[in-house]
Amino acid sequence: MNTNPILAEALRGGSVESMHRGAFAVVDADGALHGAAGDVDRPIFPRSAVKLLQALPLVESGAADRWQLSDEELALACASHGGEPRHTQAAAAMLAKAGVDAAALECGAHWPYRDVTQREMAARGETPTALHNNCSGKHAGFVCLGCLMAEQSGARDRRAFLRGYVTPDHPVMREVTAALQSTTGWDLARSPVGTDGCSIPTHSIPLRHLALAFARAGTGIGLRDGQARASKRLRAAVAKAPFMVAGSGRFDTRVMERLGERVFCKVGAEGVYCAALPEAGLGVAIKIDDGNNARAAEVVMAALIERLVRLDDAERSFVHGLADLPLSNWNGLEVGRLRATLPD
Predict the structure, then answer these.
(1) Distance CA 197, CA 201 (A)
(2) 36-41 contacts at long range (C-beta below 8 A, 24 or more positions apart)
(3) Strand, helix or coil at 101?
(4) Cβ–Cβ under 8 Å, residues 212 and 29
């Protein structure tokens, strides 16, 4: 049995307390492997890390133009957001532009990720709606795509056309799945398919192919013209509005606020991270075996960005600080460190 290497460690008292094993792949748009650790050919569920790829049909189809979506709204279509007011307002605005409301969303409802927002809502006696779901922007993008498809098909009842858009055989989800297959170059019929937390299908794909897709998304190489233009537009939108793709204090927002279009990075559940590094012409895909995100996947992604992206001294210090973090207790005392341990 192949054992993946240790990619991150938590230290306390100068000794290792916890270890996180995993794998990563760094690939160019031609499929050449520029770096790897662990098993990069085992299919894994990428979860929300592929939202950029899932948003490509929204732009390529013309739906983003038809409904005049802003940069903030396009960034939200790629987001796992924190449910802060700017996020929920943008999701509602996307739906309104397409002529529907939050009742069209099929992602389910949960409390916002951010504690402050939760407390503010509770103090007002509010309960969460589908707009607070971290995937509401992605789903609003699906709905916008579906509304254009309904219009083009001559469907009289837009809501009826949209119903069940999360199911594999719905026209919207067929477009999303086709985009995922064409960008990764992986035959999705070869691997297991599950149901994601937001109810859409999630297809298992090897890290090598996920990294390839993000190299293609960052460079346009290997994508058809419409996809290449769509990816460029989405990445530019995220670089202009990085708050929308995550939120206050979140890793993805902080990194893209600082590094702009040099990095597009996106977390997925269960320890998955993907990134496009356009200047380097590379894509990155990470899977932490134990499914840990904040304790492992983030420091590994930071270490790979530090290794692969052109940075000035201040930027390098910032990124290194995300790859080697002090751990503090409730009294504010530093009690250890969390660090990436990438193989050479």
Answers:
(1) 9
(2) 36/208, 37/4, 37/5, 37/7, 37/342, 37/343, 38/2, 38/4, 38/5, 38/7, 39/2, 39/4, 40/206, 40/207, 40/208, 40/211, 40/285, 41/206, 41/207, 41/208
(3) coil
(4) yes
Please say if the pLDDT value at position 325 is more than 60.
yes
Tokens of 226: 């419409």
Beta strands in the chain, from DSSP E residues, in sequence order: 6-12, 15-28, 33-37, 43-44, 193-195, 201-203, 205-206, 264-268, 272-277, 282-288, 324-328, 334-340
Write b or e for each residue in 205-222: b if 16 or more Cβ atoms lie within 10 A of its Cβ, otherwise e. bbbbbbbbbbbbbbbbeb
User: To which H or E segment does residue 216 belong?
Assistant: helix 207-219
Nearest to 221 by CA among 232, 234, 210, 208: 232
d(CA 307, CA 303): 6
Q: In this structure, are residues 284 and 26 in contact, taking their beta carbons and an 8 Å threshold? A: yes
| Token digits of residue 327 | 């751990």
Q: Which class for 328: exposed (0-12), middle (13-18), buried (19 or more C-beta within 10 A)?
A: exposed
Residue type, 254: R
**Confidence grade of residue 8 (pLDDT, cut at 50, 70, 90):** very high
pTM for the model: 0.96
User: Which tokens go with 155?
Assistant: 């469907």
Residue 95's φ and ψ, nearest 5 degrees, are -65, -40
Rounded distance between C-alpha atoms, residue 195 and residue 176, angstroms:
14
Secondary-structure percent of the chain, ordered helix, strand, coil, rounded to 5: 50, 20, 35
Judge whether residue 1 has pLDDT over 60.
Answer: no
User: Do strands 193-195 and 201-203 pair parallel, antiparallel, or not at all (unpaired)?
Assistant: antiparallel
The model's confidence at residue 190, banded by pLDDT at 50, 70 and 90, is confident
Residue type, 110: H
Half-sphere exposure of 193 (CA within 13 A, CB side): 13
